[in-house]
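In full, the data:

***
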Amino acid sequence: SAIYELSCEAYKHLGKTSNYYWIDPDGSGTLGPLKVYCNMTEDKVWTTVYHDLQMQTSVGGSSVEKLPVLQLNYSATMDQISAITSSAEYCEQFISYSCKMSRLLNTPEGNPYTWWVGKANEKHYYWGGSGPGIQKCACGIERNCTDPKYYCNCDADYKQWRKDSGMLTYKEHLPVSQVVVGDVDRPGSEAKVSVGPVRCQGDRNYWNAASFVTSSSYLHFSTFQGETSADISFYFKTSASDGVFLENLGNTDFIKLELKSASEVSFSFDVGNGPVEIVVRSPNPLNDDQWHRVNAERNVKQASLQVDQLPLEVRKAPSEGHTRLELYSQLYVGAAGGQRGFLGCIRSLRMNGVTLDLEERAKVTPGVKPGCSGHCTSYGMYCANGGKCVEKYNGYSCDCSKTAYDGPFCIKDVGAFFEEGMWLRYNFRSLGTSAKDLVSRTLLSSADPEITAPDLSLNKEELSFSFSTTKFPCVLLYVSSYTPDFMAVLVNPTGNLQIRYNLGGTKEPYNIDIDHRNMANGQPHTVNVTRNGRDIVLQLDHYPPTTYSLPATSDIQFNSPKALFLGKVIEIGKIDQDIYKYNTPGFTGCLSRVQFNQIAPLKAALRPTNASSHVHIQGELVESNCGASPLTIPPMSAATDPWHLDSASADFPYNGQAIGDGVNRNSAIIGGVIAVVIFTILCTLVFLIRYMFRHKGTYHTNEAKGAESAESADAAIMNNDPNFTETIDESKKEWLI
C-alpha cells in the first residue's frame, strides 16, 4: 500500500506546512514516488518540480548546422510530472529569452528561430505570456512590443539587450524539456535563456467527490479491469451505520467493499476458490461524520485492507487454485443489486491508480449530488490558535483574522523588531465612526455592545505574547484606561519579569514578581496572563502555570480601557513612577503574536485589517520572527537549507546559481560575520564606558526632576498641541525620564 501521500493537497490536510515531500501520484501504480516542494499558502497548495538548467544560461556563437539545444533534466520523470499536471487545476512555468541581435519567433510572418519542446516531445512555437497556436510573445498579446511591427521584443533585432518573458500556462503542453535556440550565429548575436520550475496548484482528484442521498442511489462505471491485481482507495464520511461502498460482479467472481457496521469495514472477493472476506474493526465508530480512508489491495499472492492508521489486515492467497478475477458487470458505486447502499460521501476514489470522476457522473444521476460539504468536522482541528475553519466547496481554509497569527493554519507568529525609542499604540476606541467602535468593543470583550466605550469595563482579560530582549529595565506592554486603572508587563532593573495591576481599592499597585529567572537573556520567552475576577493565572514559557489572587480590597473591574502600548508608554495624565523610569530609553528587542482578548495590535499594524485604523506607530516597525517562541520555528531541514549541499538529490533551487563556489562563499560569509561581530562588541564597549561616566552623578536628580515636573509638562504639551502624542519630538520627551 502507498506509504506516501498522493499529492501536496493530501499533505496539507494532514496539517503539514511548506517543505519538500515525497508524493506518489498514482498510488501503488507503476510511476513510483517523486520528491516535490509543497508550498502551502493561505488558500492554495502549490506543487513545485525543479530542473537543472541555470537561470540566464548564455547561448551564442554556434554553427548553423547544429542549433544549440538546452536540455532540462527534472527531479522527476516526464510521466510523473504528467500525473501531477493532469490532476492539477492550474499549472505554470516561467520562460524568458534575453536577446542582443537575436530574433526569437521571427514574427510577424517568418518561421520561428527558437522553439521549446514540451510533453510528448511536441515542439511549440509560442512563448511565455501567450497561448497555443499563437505565434506571439507576451508583448504581442498586450500590444506593447518595443517595435510595434513585431510580436516579440527580440524580433526587432536591436543591438541593445531586450527581453521576452512570461508564464506558459497551457498545462497539457508542460513541462518544458528542451529549448532550441536559432538566431545566435551572426557576429554580435547573443541570447540568455531562463526557465522556471513547473508549479501546479490544486488537486482535482483529491476533492473529486459525490454525496449519496438515498440508500438506493448509485453511480455506475465501466467494468473494473483488475484480473491479477486490484488497488482501490477512497475516503468516506457518513453518519449511517452500514451500506455498500462499491461492487463489481462476474459469473461467480466478484469484488466488494462495504461498511458492515458502525465500526467494521469489509473487503470481500471471489476469484473462483470461494469467497474471501477481510474485515477491519475500528475501536471507535466510523459513522462519526469524519473522513476515513480505506485502502484495499489484492494480487496473486495476498490481499490486504487498511482503514485510516489502523493495523493492516492481510490474507495470503492459497498456493493452488484460481488467481484471475474475471468480472463482467458494470462497476457500481453505492447501492448494487438491491442491497442497501452507502449513505454519505465518497471522495478521491482510485481504482488501480486512476481516479474515477464521481463528480461528473453525479451531476447526471438522481439521488447522488456532486461534491461534499462539512470538511471542517474533519480538518477544523488544524486551524490552530483560535483560527476559525471555513468551509469551501472543495476543502476548507483557516480564517486567522481574530488571532495574532497568520499562514494557512494560523501558526505563523506575526512579530516585529523594536528599535530603541520606538513604540506602538492601539486605541480601543477608533477616532472614526461608532460602527468601528462597536467592532473594537466586541473584540475587547463579550460585553453588551450598547455600552459606550469609556463605560466599558472588563472582569477578565487574556493576554499572551512572546518577546526577546537584552536591555532592561523596560516596558513590554501597558494597557491604559480613562481612569487610574492600568495593567503592565515590565522587565525590572534586575532583568526579571513583573506583572503590575492597578484596578483601584489598594494603596499601591498589585505586583507579581518572577524572581530568579533572567528574562533579558536574548532568548524568546512566552508570557500568558489570564485574569478572571480576582484570580490571575500566569504561565511563563513551558513552566507550569501559577495562580495569584488580587488583594481582598482590590476592585475586580478594569474600568474604561483606553489604549494598549508596546515598547513605551506615551499617555496623558499621571503615570506610575516606576513605569516613568522604565520608559527611558524604551524597549529594544522583539515582540511577537501579541494578543489582548481578541485584539492583535502587532498584526493590525503589519497586516492591513479593519482594525488598522486603531494603530499609531512611532518609528519604523520592521516585521521579524526574532521574538517567536522557539516552538514555531522548526530547524531548517536539509532540503530547504540553502547551505546544505546534497549532491545525491536533484532539488535545484529556482535561481539556479552555480553551487560549485558554495564553499568559498561560505568561508567568506563566515569571515565577514565574525569581523562585524568583533567590530560591534568594540563599539558597544566604547559607548558603555562613555555612558557610565556621563550618567554617574546625574541619575538621581533626573528622576526627581521628572517626578516634579510631570504634571506641568503634561499640561504644557497638551495646551500647545491637541494632537500631542503624534508629534512629541526628542526634546519634549525629556520629561518622561
